[in-house]
Design a protein that fits this description.
heterotrimer, A: 469 residues, 12-stranded mixed beta sheet, 11 helices, disordered N terminus, B: alpha/beta, 6-stranded mixed beta sheet, 9 helices, globular
Chain lengths: 469, 249, 443
């Protein structure tokens, strides 16, 4: 089904507002050693962090942009025109009533306190560089679960923090993980004690409020032996004229038999460069599952990974990407098999609308002398308009006997006869398109918690409304 | 009396004429059957009336209650009360029948008015029971993995739920065994009434034993060659189509 | 080893002493290609087009070109250049020297087919040769070596099939190499007019005692409107060889090409294969069979380039890997804007027979038109133990059972040829390779 192209103007009003606040701390534009000292001083950080940041800055400077495989659009990021640290200067509050009015209103408009009451075990809300609210239900805290901002955790639980920080994703992993290591602030820290199964999800919400701002949160989740936790993050930013940078690093550690589910629903405005490094380490019989939904942004580059280091560990990436007009979703997955009988599964579905471009990039590695490793990858792309684009670049490396990998990908468009059929039942073309697209991703959306899947359907409807002319 | 009127309709696909002047009047409350050999243009007629974009209407008109529908989009025609039961119903993966029908019914309600969900399900289950469809059907994706009979039943279910004023049933009997045929025919007969005009398109007389038409038209080579009452169908069954083709020539 | 700064050394090479064989335009282009070869860097790790490739195995040092074949070598070559029973003719080259052109009952000449050495075509067919000779590079990464071929090509096969001429029987070209450290540059150029049909088979072999060859082969197919070309090559270069193979197919309107490359010989082997579907209605089938043993590496890069609507392509690559052999498959289906109703398929299947074998698969898609059907798949796995058990339960030993299964895995591709005699011949090469790989002296 080819659809005439028209200018697509997506209603992203849900996140498109901001308050003019005067921050207490603003590191100003550009990134130098001074910026790092400013951040360390404001946050009153230990020396090892200061040194780590300074080393990371060197690495960041020394690494070229990865344009030998990634898009040239990266060159449009002006690192000197970004503000690397902006904080309201208040402590993290345990009650919404104590949160400054405008900040509180921001999160109320995004529906966070309401969700917290309804179905969450804990919430953390980050506003620009720092968490402003963090709370965990008492019953969950009583089980020994730690859930707080990374800034706080560094002070309160240095022994766990230091043990795992940067162990899954070293500073020099890539240019943007180095950048994050140099200027990171905020993000969540979770520790789940052995055997504790957190019934309800823990949620973090990342909000960019300031123009020309770069958000660099750092999340570290450790699920101890036999524990289970589900973490969800949501992200929005207002639509500014100039570009905004979001470059997070997320490290997960699943100890033997632990299970971590990490769910992302991002709805960035189309001025955001979203360059995120996410990786989990799964030990014996542990499970790490990334459920990733990428909507919006100018460019997203994100390839959640699992290093399966223990026998029978399991890694999974479920990914939905919606590339609207003028957007580039460059997403995928990385599965590193490093022990016998490890299994991984990747299911990726992308939709390209208007001049949108969806790219799948994957890497599956099964090294020599492992036995019984299995990978399965499925990538399906749906093209909506005549000038939509999709690319698939997987790399599958399999060595030795007793391992198997299979990869399948398809590209299709919405079937014209299917649309005719639905329109014959009275649906408009946009409704029919929307149903077809929802049908296309339906099996993946079902893996999201109910509240998120409803939100996701609504976002897809909004995107599709503009796509038919 | 309100009618669906087809006036000297000519239509072509890729410049190739298929319909070469079809005229037909289907009043509400009546059942008309079109019979004809393969390639006579029967299915094309159905798709042209529904508004399929592959076909170009070169002349003539289609009037619903006196109003031309040719300029209307497919969905607009549907909401005006036109229903096409497809010969080959499309699979719509990932979209459940329940959600699909809800969306279709919702599209018929005035803006701002929400579908009454309980009532909807009551009606849906009632119609499904009538068609001998299991409740689990509602959560299955539209036509995906359905047998031929299930697909056809699903079409009639949708017809029952959407309450059209005119329905075109395109080869609804094809691919059905006799039991399935009876169920589908019973479903259609239950919907017969003064507010519905039906155009049955079929290759075989068999269907007309179960859905008895008021009028029978014979179509060949893009035209209606002869019209008559239900006895015409029996005559065709005995003599075959050649007889009509010859007498027309 | 820092390959970036290493200057390639090819002894015995002088452009001047060959130039007197060629017309001016041809020599000019040779010199230009030599300069481009010298100016381009050796492959680097950061070049995505060489991802996973064992580039440290590429060294151009110490090779000698244009060795005059000895009588003994010619005799051996002729004795082993067997024709299939329905052959339309054979041409035999040894070290880039044409030593035989043998046509069956002048069948080709009578039909107006031009089948001559390139060294003759440069003057006899200057116009058409100049228009087509290396007109299209694969663009898949190994251009440096394609330029080296252009600079040092000495001879090869030129085939022109005029309009409406259909040749059912295959035309076979044998390229032999003799000696140690010999460099050869085989070249087959096939051009068809309108509504023509032809089957061409290239065999690349080493004579007794040959080893450590540098072989850079090119074959270009220009498939005229409504024409059909079947092209088959078997690469069975001697051990320790460094080989490159460039295969470009340019398809006209409603034309059809089927190419099958069988990869057996060499040490490090890079094969680049592209199909450009330049007009509506074109269809290209790209097939390859690889049996990799010992420490062989087969680095395969492909492109299915759909430039126009209503074109189709179908790629099937099968690799069987034993010992510590490696394969790399990087394939791209590219659908250009406006190339609607493209139907493209790409499949790579790897069968690993040993614990040290390694298969790298990078099946890629770049789709810039929406009314398309494109799928790709890649699988890597082993022999199904149940299947092995079944064969063994019938009394076959482990080695034979595995060989049967591996052979069956590859045979599927030969089944796509509608030339049973040729399929048998290719099957015999596979058997020969299996024999060699189980002979410890030869591996």
């Amino acid at each position: 089904m080819s659809v005439k192209n028209n200018e697509i103007n997506i209603d992203r009003e849900i996140g498109n507002f901001h308050y003019n606040l005067t921050p207490a701390h603003d590191a100003g534009y550009g990134l130098t050693e001074e910026t790092i000292h400013f951040i360390c001083d404001v946050k009153n950080e230990p020396d090892w962090i200061r040194e780590l940041r300074l080393r990371a800055l060197e690495v960041f400077r020394s690494k070229p942009l990865p344009t030998h495989w990634a898009t040239e659009d990266l060159r449009n990021i002006d690192f000197d025109q970004i503000r690397y640290y902006i904080a309201p200067g208040t402590d993290v509050k345990r009650s919404w009533d104590e949160v400054p009015t405008e900040v509180k209103e921001t999160f109320e408009r995004l529906g966070i306190p309401e969700s917290e009451r309804k179905f969450l075990a804990g919430v953390e809300a980050q506003f620009d560089s720092e968490a402003v609210y963090s709370n965990i239900k008492k019953a969950v805290a009583d089980q020994g679960v730690i859930f707080m901002g990374s800034t706080e955790a560094l002070k309160e639980h240095p022994e766990i923090f230091r043990k795992w920080f940067g162990k899954v994703i070293p500073t020099g992993d890539n240019k943007f993980s180095a950048l994050n290591s140099a200027v990171f602030s905020g993000g969540s820290f979770i520790y789940v004690p052995p055997g504790v199964k957190v019934k309800h999800p823990l949620q973090a919400y990342f909000r960019i409020n300031s123009e020309n701002f770069g958000q660099f949160e750092r999340t570290l989740i450790i699920a101890d032996e036999g524990s289970e936790v589900m973490y969800m993050e949501g992200c929005t930013a207002p639509k500014f004229e100039t570009s905004t940078l979001h470059s997070a690093v997320v490290e997960l550690v699943a100890m033997p038999r632990a299970k971590i589910q990490y769910i992302t629903v991002q709805n960035w405005s189309s001025n955001v460069f979203n360059l995120v490094t996410k990786r989990g380490l799964a030990l014996e019989e542990a499970e790490i599952k990334w459920i990733d939904c990428n909507i919006g942004s100018r460019l997203t580059m994100k390839y959640p990974g699992v290093v399966m280091k223990g026998r029978k560990a399991r890694g999974e990436v479920i990914s939905i990407a919606l590339a609207g007009d003028g957007q580039h979703q460059d997403t995928g997955a990385k599965m590193i098999h490093a022990a016998d009988e490890t299994t991984s599964n990747i299911v990726s579905k992308s939709i390209s609308i208007g001049k949108g471009r969806a790219t799948y990039r994957g890497q599956v590695t099964v090294p020599r002398h492992l036995k019984g490793c299995k990978n399965n990858t499925e990538c399906d792309a749906l093209l909506i308009n005549t000038d939509s684009r999709t690319d698939t670049y997987p790399a599958i490396i399999v060595r030795g006997l007793g391992n198997a990998a299979q990869h399948e990908a398809s590209v299709s468009q919405v079937n014209a006869e299917q649309i005719f059929y639905m329109m014959q039942r009275g649906l408009t073309e946009a409704q029919a398109m929307s149903l077809a697209v929802n049908g296309f991703v339906n099996d993946l959306v079902r893996q999201f918690p109910m509240e998120y899947s409803v939100e996701l359907k609504r976002l897809i409807d909004l995107e599709m409304e503009g796509s038919v002319g | 009396m309100p009618t669906l009127e087809i006036k000297d309709l000519h239509a072509s696909i890729n410049g190739q004429p298929i319909l070469k002047g079809v005229s037909l009047i289907i009043p509400q409350g009546e059942v008309h059957a079109i019979m004809g050999p393969n390639g006579s243009g029967k299915s094309t007629l159905a798709k042209v009336i529904a508004g399929h974009e592959d076909y170009e209407v070169t002349s003539g008109d289609v009037l619903m209650d006196g109003e031309s529908i040719l300029e209307m989009e497919v969905d607009e025609r549907s909401r005006k009360g036109l229903f096409l039961a497809f010969q080959y119903p499309m699979e719509v993966p990932g979209v459940s029948i329940a959600n699909f029908l809800r969306a279709a019914i919702q599209s018929r309600l005035p803006e701002g008015k929400e579908l009454e969900v309980t009532e909807y399900y009551q009606q849906l289950y009632r119609e499904m029971d009538r068609l001998g469809m299991d409740r689990s059907f509602t959560s299955r994706s539209v036509n995906e993995g359905f047998s031929g009979g299930e697909k056809k039943r699903n079409e009639i279910l949708q017809m029952a739920m959407l309450k059209p004023r005119y329905a075109i049933l395109d080869e609804t009997d094809s691919g059905l065994d006799i039991d399935a045929l009876k169920i589908v025919a019973n479903g259609v007969n239950a919907l017969r009434g003064p507010d519905l005009g039906i155009l049955l398109i079929t290759h075989y007389q068999r269907l007309l034993d179960h859905i008895v038409p008021d009028n029978v038209h014979v179509m060949a080579n893009g035209r209606i060659l002869r019209s008559g009452n239900k006895d015409l169908a029996l005559e065709l069954e005995q003599k075959g189509y050649d007889w009509i083709l010859e007498s027309a020539a | 080893m820092n390959t970036d700064t290493e200057s390639p050394v090819l002894t015995g090479v002088s452009l001047d002493n060959l130039n007197n064989r060629f017309p001016h335009w041809f020599s000019e282009e040779r010199s230009a290609a030599w300069s481009r070869f010298e100016s381009l860097p050796m492959p680097t790790r950061t070049d995505e087009r060489w991802r996973f490739s064992g580039i440290n195995r590429i060294s151009l040092q110490g090779y000698t070109t244009s060795l005059e074949p000895t009588h003994k070598e010619i005799e051996e070559a002729l004795a082993n250049s067997a024709k299939v029973e329905n052959s339309a003719g054979r041409m035999v080259l040894v070290n880039d020297h044409v030593v035989l052109r043998e046509e069956t009952e002048r069948a080709l000449t009578k039909l107006g087919v031009v089948w001559i050495p390139i060294s003759e075509a440069v003057t006899a067919q200057a116009g058409i040769l100049r228009e087509h000779f290396m007109a299209q590079f694969t663009g898949l990464g190994a251009e440096k070596f394609a330029h080296l071929h252009r600079a040092l090509v000495r001879d090869g096969v030129f085939l022109y099939v005029p309009d409406n001429v259909e040749i059912e029987d295959p035309i076979e070209n044998y390229y032999w190499v003799g000696g140690r450290k010999t460099a050869v540059f085989p070249h087959t150029l096939v051009i068809t007019g309108v509504n023509a049909k032809v089957t061409v088979v290239d065999h690349y072999f080493g004579l007794e005692g040959a080893e450590d060859t540098l072989a850079i082969g090119v074959n270009d197919l220009f498939v005229g409107d409504g024409s059909a070309i079947t092209y088959i090559s078997t690469q069975f270069w001697p051990g320790k060889s460094l080989t490159f193979h460039f295969n470009s197919t340019i398809l006209g309107r409603d034309s059809c090409a089927k190419s099958l490359n069988v990869h057996l010989g060499g040490d490090f082997n890079r094969a680049e294969s592209v199909s450009h579907l330049t007009a509506p209605g074109g269809r290209s089938e790209m097939l390859a069979v690889t049996l990799a043993t010992g420490e062989q590496e087969f680095d395969q890069r492909t492109l299915q380039d759909h430039q126009q609507p209503n074109t189709s392509s179908d790629l099937l690559y099968k690799n069987t890997l034993d010992h510590s052999a490696r394969s790399i498959f990087s394939g791209l289906i590219k659908v250009e804007p406006g190339a609607h109703r493209t139907d493209a398929y790409q499949k790579v299947r790897n069968l690993l027979l040993s614990n040290d074998a390694e298969a790298n698969s990078m099946p890629g898609l770049e789709i810039l038109a929406d009314d398309v059907r494109c799928t790709h798949g890649a699988t890597s796995g082993q022999i199904d133990p149940e299947e092995l058990f079944y064969l063994k339960s019938r009394g076959l030993n482990e080695t034979i059972s595995r060989r049967l299964i591996a052979n069956g895995f590859l045979q599927e591709v030969f089944g796509r040829l509608d030339q049973p005699a040729l399929a048998d011949k290719l099957g015999s090469y596979i058997e020969k390779k299996f024999d060699l790989s189980h002979d410890p002296k030869k591996t």
